[in-house]
Amino acid sequence: MRYFAVVGGAAQQTSVEERVLASNPIMESIGNAKTTRNDNSSRFGKYIEIGFGRKGDIIGANMRTYLLEKSRVVFQASQERNYHIFYQLCASRDLPEMRVLKLGGAETFRYTNQGGEDSMQIPGTDDVVDLERTRNAFTILGVPPDQQMELFRILAAVLHLGNVNIQASGRGGDRSYIDGEDRSLAVFSKLLGVERTQMAHWLCHRRLAVGGEMLVKPMPGQQSLEARDALAKHVYGQLFTWTVTRLN
């Protein structure tokens, strides 16, 4: 990008170039993760199309993404991490504006602790500093603070969803339920503005169309866990897509 800007005749970094470069910290935080081979591995594909004017100057850019590894949201192998943004938020939990997210350390969440204690911190990096860098990039790209907090609220909700305790009941565990006092469910519901009792019900039941009628059937414990994780992956995938669209 810097090379193209110079070749195009810009004496200094252009506004478009600055904005495209500013998208890097954001895409790294929501699309990169620590793997056993790479501490900052892209878990999605990215294609940037750059538009040039008649004089060879950069006049626009558009980013396309594909193949986001959504499975990483709910599972990480040993010595690996989830997406960086989750650890950045957990590390910044004591900031005044972040306290509403009710976050703990990364080790307290199922979706961020599966890689093991040694994997949660990447040597030579500071998750608090990286979050500040991510927020500054959002600001450069014109995303206001209240919209940034909406994004962080959804990300925090995903972490709390992973800690919702779904328990099996009935003969052979053919039914499941969530305790009405489950703290993680309460925080998740509050952050997303949904009704807690409805969430508890639909995480443990499914609706079937049979002979033109709609039947509600309880799900076994394992199916409910899979449904919970599927919801987390879907929410993250939609958030990722929204972010790319917003940056464009």
Order of helices and strands: HHEEEEHHHHEEHHEEH
- Give a quick account of the main beta sheet: strands, pairing sense, barrel closure: 2 strands, antiparallel
Distance between the termini: 16 Å
Q: Share of helix among residues? A: 40-55%
- Summing up helix and strand content along with how strands pair, one would put the structural category as alpha+beta
Strand order of the largest sheet: 1-2
- How much of the polypeptide forms β-strand, as a percent range? 15-25%
Our count of helices gives: 9
Instruction: Provide the low-confidence segments as ranges.
Output: none
| Overall pLDDT | 92
Count of β-strands: 8
- The radius of gyration over CA amounts to 21 Å
CA-based shape: elongated
GO molecular function: actin filament binding; ATP binding; microfilament motor activity
Keywords: Actin-binding, ATP-binding, Motor protein, Myosin, Nucleotide-binding
Family: Belongs to the TRAFAC class myosin-kinesin ATPase superfamily. Myosin family.
InterPro entries: Kinesin_motor_dom_sf, Myosin_head_motor_dom-like, P-loop_NTPase
Commentary on this structure:
- By secondary structure, this protein is α+β, with helices and mostly antiparallel strands.
- The chain contains 9 helices and 8 strands.
- It has helices at residues 2-7, 15-31, 84-91, 110-113, 127-140, 145-162, 183-192, 196-202, 221-247, and strands at 32-33, 41-42, 45-52, 58-66, 166-169, 175-178, 205-210, 213-218.
- A hairpin with a 5-residue loop joins β3 (45-52) and β4.
- The radius of gyration is 21 Å and the shape is elongated.
- It comes from Coregonus suidteri.
- Belongs to the TRAFAC class myosin-kinesin ATPase superfamily. Myosin family.
- InterPro entries: Kinesin_motor_dom_sf, Myosin_head_motor_dom-like, P-loop_NTPase.
